[in-house]
Design brief:
By secondary structure, this protein is of the alpha+beta class. Helix content is 26%, strand content 27%. It folds into three domains: 2-74, Uridine Diphospho-n-acetylenolpyruvylglucosamine Reductase, domain 2 (2-Layer Sandwich), CATH 3.30.43.10; 79-191, Uridine Diphospho-n-acetylenolpyruvylglucosamine Reductase, domain 3 (2-Layer Sandwich), CATH 3.30.465; 239-342, Alpha-Beta Complex (Uridine Diphospho-n-acetylenolpyruvylglucosamine Reductase, domain 1). α5 crosses α6 (217-231). The protein is globular and about 60 Å long. The two termini are 28 Å apart. Pathway: Cell wall biogenesis; peptidoglycan biosynthesis. Residues 21-193 form the FAD-binding PCMH-type domain. Keywords: Cell cycle, Cell division, Cell shape, Cell wall biogenesis/degradation, Cytoplasm, FAD, Flavoprotein, NADP, Oxidoreductase, Peptidoglycan synthesis.
C-alpha cells in the first residue's frame, strides 16, 4: 500500500469547501489515479469499520468541525471524445475535472447541450450525484453513463441513465446504499442537431437585448454566466454553497390555498399536474433575506443562498437552515428541502 503513504494528517479543509468552513480532517488522501483504488479496497476490507468521505470541489457539502473518517479528495483528470457518428458525439471526463472548465471545453469542441449549466461550481464526478440543473436544463439531459468503483467489493460498475434514477436535484448516488461507490468517470451524449434552451425569461431577454436571435452554445453560456454572476456571490469573496434549498414541488390544491393569502406567490406549472414554487421567494416573505445569525446569514441579494460571514461552523449552518425551514413551513405549509449534503 505504498500510495497510502501520501496520507496527510490533521488537514484544514477550509480552502477545499466553498462555504469556507475550517473543518479539520484527521487523514486526507488525494486520489489522482484509479491505480490507487485497489489499495483502498484492501484497506477497507481489512478495516471495515473505517469510514470515508468523498470530497470533490466541496461546493455542495457542509462540513463539520472535525472529520475522523478518511477524506478522499477526488483529483482524477482527463477528458476526451470517445465516439462520433452523424447524429451524436460521446464524450468522457474524469471525476476530478472542474465542471465549468469541462462545459467550456465541450463548447470549444463544437458541442451544445451543457451550456445552460455553465459556471456551476464543483467537479464532473459530483455533478450526477445532485443531477445539477439550471435555466431549463439538467445534467441528465446529456448524460449517457458513468463508472464507479465499489470500495467494499473492489469491483467497477457502469451505470446507465436509468440505473442512476435521476430526479430533481437527486439521484441513486445520494442514497445510503451508494455511499461506498466512488464515481471515477462520466460519459455524456451530445446531439449534433442542437437547439438552445431559452425558456427562462432572463436568458431570452438578455440575448434579445444583444440583438442575438439565433445564439450559439457559447453565446448562451456567456449570457448565463453573466446572469449567475449578477445574482450569486463568488465563493472566493464570501463563502457559500450556491442555492441552498430546492424549489418545492407541491400540489395545485396547496398552491391555490397559498395564493388565497399570498396572490403574488411565484409558481411554475409542471407537466405532471403539480407545480414548483420559488424557494427564494418563500424565504424572503418569511423575513430571512439579508438576516444574519452568528457567523452565517442569508445573502442580501438572493434569499436562496446562505453565506459565511467569517468563522462559520457546520452546526451554525444547520441551525440557520432549520430555522428557515420552520418559518417557511409555519407561514406557507411547505417544507423546504436542503440541496447541499451535511457531512456528519
Amino acid at each position: 500500500m505504498n500510495q497510502l503513504f501520501s496520507l496527510q494528517h490533521k488537514v484544514s479543509l477550509k480552502n477545499h469547501n466553498t462555504f469556507g468552513i475550517n473543518a479539520i480532517a484527521d487523514n486526507v488522501l488525494r486520489i489522482s489515479s484509479v491505480d490507487q483504488l485497489p489499495e483502498l479496497h484492501a484497506r477497507f476490507k481489512a478495516q471495515p469499520e473505517l469510514g470515508f468521505v468523498f470530497l470533490g470541489g466541496g461546493s455542495n457539502v457542509i462540513l463539520p468541525d472535525h472529520i475522523e473518517a478518511l477524506v478522499l479528495q477526488i483529483d482524477l483528470k482527463g477528458k476526451q471524445v470517445i465516439e462520433r457518428d452523424n447524429n451524436t458525439v460521446l464524450v468522457s471526463a474524469s471525476a476530478g475535472e472542474n465542471w465549468h472548465d469541462f462545459v467550456q471545453w465541450t463548447i470549444a469542441q463544437g458541442l451544445g447541450g451543457l451550456e445552460n449549466l455553465s459556471l456551476i461550481p464543483g467537479t464532473v464526478g459530483a455533478a450526477p450525484i445532485q443531477n445539477i440543473g439550471a435555466y431549463g436544463r439538467e445534467l441528465k439531459d446529456c448524460f449517457y453513463s458513468l463508472r464507479a468503483y465499489d470500495l467494499l467489493s473492489g469491483e467497477e460498475h457502469v451505470f446507465s441513465k436509468e440505473q442512476c434514477a435521476f430526479a430533481y436535484r437527486d439521484s441513486f448516488f445520494k442514497r445510503p446504499e451508494s455511499r461506498h461507490l466512488l464515481i471515477t468517470e462520466v460519459c455524456f451524449s451530445f446531439d449534433l442537431d442542437w437547439q438552445p434552451e431559452l425558456s427562462y425569461g432572463d436568458v431570452a431577454q438578455r440575448l434579445k437585448g444583444q440583438g442575438i436571435s439565433k445564439p450559439t452554445p457559447q453565446q448562451v453560456s456567456d449570457t448565463i454566466c453573466a446572469i449567475r454572476r449578477s445574482k450569486l456571490p463568488d465563493p472566493r469573496e464570501i463563502g457559500n454553497a450556491g442555492s441552498f434549498f430546492k424549489n418545492p414541488i407541491i400540489s395545485i390544491e396547496l398552491r391555490d390555498r397559498i395564493l388565497e393569502s399570498y396572490p403574488h406567490c411565484v409558481s411554475y406549472p409542471l407537466p405532471n399536474g403539480q407545480c414548483k414554487l420559488a424557494a427564494g421567494w418563500l424565504i424572503e416573505q418569511a423575513g430571512w433575506k439579508g438576516r444574519q445569525t452568528g457567523n452565517v446569514g442569508v445573502y442580501e441579494k438572493q434569499a436562496l443562498v446562505l453565506v459565511n460571514h467569517g468563522g462559520a461552523t457546520g452546526m451554525e449552518v444547520r441551525a440557520l437552515a432549520e430555522a428557515i425551514q420552520n418559518d417557511v413551513a409555519q407561514k406557507f405549509g411547505v417544507r423546504l428541502e436542503v440541496e447541499p449534503i451535511f457531512i456528519d
